[in-house]
Write a structure and sequence with these properties.
- By secondary structure, this protein is α/β, with parallel strands linked by helices.
- The chain has eleven helices and twelve strands.
- Helix 5 crosses helix 7.
- The longest helix has 19 residues.
- The two termini are about 15 Å apart.
């Protein structure tokens, strides 16, 4: 049967993507969901653990003597204590590059919604508003063009650069912030700039950076105060990048025109999250990454990571250890 492979939260991949490419490489056990109190029990004896959002902390990793590799069913890997895995010589492998088309499409869809108010007007028509009008058209909120506005991209990896290209297709000026120098893309009206400058100059600010110890609450009351009152914030990265109370306050006071969030600090969202009652706030349930096409690419990437590890050549290792099968 070979290596024992345990998936802790298989439901995150959906029911329409096959696990066969993994099952061919070892004895595969897929748990749909694993609560924290069952992680250690279910992971015992596994050579390879696979997780998307199930946390693998230092104590858990230390208590699994058979564990040889951790495969993350995602690009982000903050649910794994990578230092604890490195201390054990356990490679942690993610799947970069599977989601940019899906996430970029989601970003532009919510930006268009915030500027065109398509859903608002469709609901008004369905509710009888148009039929009751004396005129040939009406609008609940003014429709605004994206052309000529400034789109700020925070983080300029695969997703951020793709979003920038889509923004330029709408004739927007693009500003980008990258913590490390990167070559400028061949985009008309593009420029790198500092973080505060980007927040102050942009009509849309879209977050595309990983969560680190240094950037939690990157978007706090001070940075929100730098933004134009007419600007919108988009977050498809990680909820912890945003001070949610500060954002809710900015929206409630009219200090910020709108926000679209696909991620929040605690998921699933808590009923007392202040953003649920904030005006002009679109919240979607962490679905930007989850097109069927993206999930199919993700599964193929995980299978390739497993094959590489079993061949003794781990790839996409995020914690600096090559481990061993």
């Amino acid at each position: 049967m070979g290596k024992r492979l345990v998936v802790l939260d298989g439901h995150t991949m959906g029911q329409d993507v096959s696990w066969e490419a993994l099952a061919r490489q070892g004895g595969l056990i897929v748990f749909d969901r694993t609560p924290p109190e069952l992680v250690l029990e279910r992971a015992q004896g596994a050579d390879v653990l696979l997780t998307n959002k199930t946390v693998l902390d230092a104590a858990t990793i230390k208590a699994l003597p058979d564990l040889r590799c951790i495969l993350v069913l995602a690009t982000g890997f903050n649910v794994v204590d990578t230092a604890a895995a490195r201390a054990r010589g356990i490679p942690v492998c993610n799947v970069p590059g599977y989601s940019p088309p899906s996430v970029a499409q989601h970003v532009l869809s919510v930006v268009l919604e915030m500027f065109s108010h398509t859903s608002l007007h469709a609901r008004a028509v369905a509710g009888g508003r148009w039929g009751a009008q004396p005129d040939f058209c009406f609008w609940e909120e003014p429709v605004q063009e994206l052309s000529g506005k400034t789109f700020g991209v925070v983080g300029f990896g695969a997703i951020g650069s793709r979003v920038a290209g889509l923004a330029q297709a709408f004739d927007m000026r693009v500003l980008a912030y990258a913590p490390r120098p990167k070559p400028a893309p061949a985009l008309r009206g593009f420029a790198f700039c500092g973080l505060d400058e980007l927040f102050a100059a942009s009509d849309v600010v879209s977050l595309h950076c990983p969560l680190t110890a240094d950037n939690e609450n990157l978007v706090d009351a001070r940075r929100l105060g730098l933004m134009k009152p007419t600007a919108r914030l988009v977050n498809t990265a990680r909820g912890q990048l945003v001070d949610e109370a500060a954002l809710a306050s900015a929206l409630a006071s009219g200090r910020l025109a709108g926000a679209a969030l696909d991620v929040v600090r605690q998921e699933p969202i808590r009923p007392d999250n202040p953003l649920l009652k904030a005006p002009n706030c679109l919240i979607t349930p962490h679905v930007a990454w989850a097109s069927r096409e993206a999930r199919t690419r993700l599964m193929a990437g995980v299978a390739a990571n497993l094959e590489a590890f079993l061949a003794g050549r781990p790839q996409n290792v995020v914690n600096g250890t090559s481990g061993g099968a």
